[in-house]
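lol ok so funny story. i was supposed to be doing the assay writeup but got distracted and ended up predicting the structure for this chain instead. priorities right. anyway since i did it might as well share w the group, maybe its usefull for someone
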Amino acid sequence: MTTSAVPVTEADVMSALDAIFLEIKRVRRELRPEDHLVQDLDIDSLAALELLIALEARFRVNLLNDPRASTVATVGELVDVICRQAASREPVAPRASAGPEIAIHP
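and the output, tada:
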C-alpha cells in the first residue's frame, strides 16, 4: 500500500515561517508575503542560514542547494520556492561551489 504525501500549502509555509521567525529573531510578528526579508524583517546572513535550515527540516526540501532560494527577496518568493520544491519532490542539483551561498537580496 502506498500513501500519497500531503501537499504543502502556502498557509503551511507561512505558519511555519511565523514560528521560525519568532524563534530566530525573538520578535512576534505576522509575516506577509510582501515583506522584504532584509529591509522589513532585518534578516542578516546568519538569520537567513538559520531560517533556511529550519525550513529544510520542517518541509524536507533542499533550499541550501537550490539556486532559486539564494535569490529570494520577499517572504512570498521564499514561500513559492518551498511550495514548488515540495510539490516536485525532485532532488535539487547541488551547486558547483565548495559550500552553500546564502544571499538574501534587498
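Residues 10-25 form the longest helix (16 residues). The helical segments are 10-25, 45-59, 75-88.
back to the writeup now i swear
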